[in-house]
Amino acid sequence: MRIRDSVALVTGASSGIGWATAVRLSGAGARLVVHGRDQARLAELADLVNGVPLTGELAAPGQVDRLAEAALDVAGRVDIVVHNAGSGWAGSFDRMPQPDIGRLIAVNLAAPIGLTRAVLPQMRARGDGHLMFVTSIAGRVGVAGEAVYAATKAGLDAFAESLRLELRGSGVGVGALAPGVVQTRFFERRGQPYARSRPRPIPAERVADVLVRAIKSGRDDRYVPGWLRLPVAVRAVAPGLYRRLAGRYGGS
Questions:
Q1: Number of domains in the chain
Q2: What is the pLDDT of residues 86-98, one digit of tens each?
Q3: Is residue 32 in a domain?
Q4: Tens-digit pLDDT profile for residues 197-252
């Protein structure tokens, strides 16, 4: 995918992976439309990348369609979408409040599906575009204490894979990037800090570098760090062994 002179929409851009990705895309020559909930931070980012800020809460009814309409209005088209916005919650599933279940499903799964549906027709009409979904290793292997979060990310992976097959030959690329533990405010926001010594959190900038390279090259599936392919492979070929190891060493 050619990034220079493209229009890129990045959701969840007011911090972490989204912020770093917007900066990298701008450096590669893209015109940015950045979305997030933190109006002040988003305005700061927009000034940094010379982009257009669009503030909103994706879990709110109608917000996804309004975001798509606003992005198309201000930019005329959308060539790249980085579906990065996400929400987490950690703890025992039987103590998870119902509103939090709905919020995770809305933000992590329903919003990227709805936003894709809104911007895809104009991509297909041009025969060009790229959809990048930021998923999670949690969605590939499951994580104790994050059942709903893992389920939403697994659903996003399945959506991306199905869409990739459907759009083959259309000129519209579909990528998925599954990061592990990243140095962002995600753990603070989910209500439980990351307390393990290993694996160590990686910088959001490293994830953004891999993500932008994947868009450029058209690579459809990436892990950050790359060794995360190993537990996914073990789970696929030896699920019993994987569960024993996960029970011993796993955790959120």
A1: 1
A2: 999 999 999 999 9
A3: yes
A4: 677 889 999 999 999 999 999 999 999 999 999 999 999 999 888 888 777 665 55
Token pair 């019993």 in the structure block, residue: 240
Strand partners, 140: none
Q: How many other β-carbons are positioned within 10 Å of the β-carbon of residue 92?
A: 9
Quote the tokens at residue 240: 């019993």
Burial classification of residue 10, based on how many CB atoms lie within 10 Å of its CB (0-12 exposed, 13-18 middle, 19 or more buried): buried
AA letter at 5: D
In the residue annotation, 242 being an active-site residue is answered as no
- 24 closest CA partner among 76, 65, 68, 82: 82
Structural domain that includes position 17: 7-249
CATH number of the domain bearing residue 224: 3.40.50.720
User: Two tokens at 153?
Assistant: 């990310």
Under 8 Å between Cβ of 57 and 63: yes
Tell me which residue has tokens 């002040």. Answer: 40
Q: What is the CA radius of gyration of the chain?
A: 17
**Rounded-to-integer distance, Cα 182 and Cα 88, Å:** 13
- Strand, coil or helix: what is 130? strand
The strands making up 129-134's β-sheet, listed across from edge to edge, are 52-55, 31-36, 7-10, 80-83, 129-134, 172-179, 221-224
Please report whether residue 2 resides in a domain: no
- Is residue 1 a part of any domain in this protein? no
CA distance 167 to 179: 24
